[in-house]
Amino acid sequence: MFRNGALQPATDQSTVRNPWSGESVGSVARDSVAQMDEAVRELRAAWRPMRPDRRAAVLSGAAHLIRERSGALAELISQESGVCIAETRKETERAATNLVVAATEAERLRGESIPVPGHDRLALTIFEPVGVVAAITPFNRPLNQVVVKVAPAVAAGCAVVLKPSEKTPLTALAFAEILVEAGLPPEHLVVTTGEPGMIGPALAGHPDIDMVTFTGSVRTGREVARVAAGKKLLLELGGNDPLIVLPDADLGLAVDLAGQGAFATAGQSCRGIKRVIAVGAIADDLVAGLVEAARRKRVGDPLDPATDVGPLISAEAAILVERRIADAVAANAKLLYGGDRRDSLITPAVLDHVPADAELVVEETFGPVAPVIRVADTAEAIEVSNGTRYGLQAGVVTSDVAEFSEIAAALRVGAVNLNAGPHFDSPHIPFGGVKSSGLGREGLSYSIREMSTVKTVTLPYPL
């Protein structure tokens, strides 16, 4: 456990293994529920909110340290997650940028004054930290997924108990050390690395936790919500995001967006493209372009800078993707390229004529797969897009802004991007979904407000 500013000795440990080689990357404590409980109670008793300028200084200092150590951090991320080094180098910069934005937002968190009609009083609203935040993070993007939860909590003035994925905990621990080195009081942060099925529910339901922010599956998210009943919740539960390509689309742009969104991070991204919906006659050329894009992807060792697609997080994850591809083919989809599995590696796959009700595209498939669903018109594209339990993000490729506006209004998602994929993101805009894709909004200024409470103070005031 990372507690009181340092890793504590542990007799019971878990080994973290490289998904590509199977070799040990390191080991972490297998914390018990009792140890976690003690740490949370101690954190709660010791925590006192910092001034906003001090919060901003910590976050800015952490961004500087990440940039100084970006090479070592990128290599660590690749080793424990299997994500290609070319992508993890970008992840470290993305994390540093998020910290800088959070630092700025920490000093912009201001309330308002409200003259109260009918009364000689003035109301003042004040943002206060919600308290102790439990942050439960997934394996993909193990640095940035942690930063987008911990940074706004620090910016809001909260204390944090972080439980990273058991598959990728080492990066989270490295980041915790960076935060303390940057000036975060040691009593403001605990990182626990116990068994998820035991520690997760106990942490989410702990009486000294005021808010839970979680990214993961719908099933686990619903369990988190159940055990955390009565607490504030921020849930990001994934998606099967569509890229809708209209007949007038710029074909080269559509192919680039589809290939990038489907194959980056080996397809292990909640906002990655999970469905390519081709409207009308553009489908043939779009599919041909996607096959060529898949052929150009170099597959293999994630630590090789030339590699584009590395392994999935585990062989079990790859077996699931392989099975869903096979089921889609059995339902008359055409596998045009890729889809071969070797241990945890899946070669980039392109499928055409995928039925809209195939599990491959109805569920969130975490793998390097570009499934093309052909539809006759815009109305059918909207129907197919809205036809699953998810509603995270979407992209539309067209030159017709009026038609885009109609599509954007009809889609039941958290964000729609014109001539960009669902994978577009920025720390300055809200991120989150509707339906089973989650509750609340991330995006740094939005997360900071989610992690705050508004106190209203009224006082006599001659009006």
Looking at this protein, list some descriptive labels.
alpha/beta; Aldehyde Dehydrogenase, Chain A, domain 2; 2 domains; 7-stranded mixed sheet; 6-stranded mixed sheet; 15 helices
At a glance:
The chain has about 475 residues and is an alpha/beta fold. The protein contains 15 helices and 22 strands. The strands form six sheets. Strands 14-17-18-13-12-19-20 form a seven-stranded mixed sheet, with helices on both faces. The protein has a six-stranded mixed sheet with strand order 9-8-7-10-11-21, with helices on both faces.
What percent of residues are in strands? 15-25%
Uncertain runs: none
Q: List the domain count as a whole number.
A: 2
Trace the largest sheet across and list its strands: 14-17-18-13-12-19-20
Number of β-strand runs = 22
Q: What does the overall shape look like?
A: globular
Question: Which class do the helix and strand fractions yield?
Answer: alpha/beta
Number of helices: 15
CATH topology of the largest domain: Aldehyde Dehydrogenase, Chain A, domain 1
Overall pLDDT: 96
Radius of gyration: 23 Å
CATH classification, class level of the largest domain: Alpha Beta
The CATH H-level homologous superfamily of the largest domain: Aldehyde Dehydrogenase, Chain A, domain 1
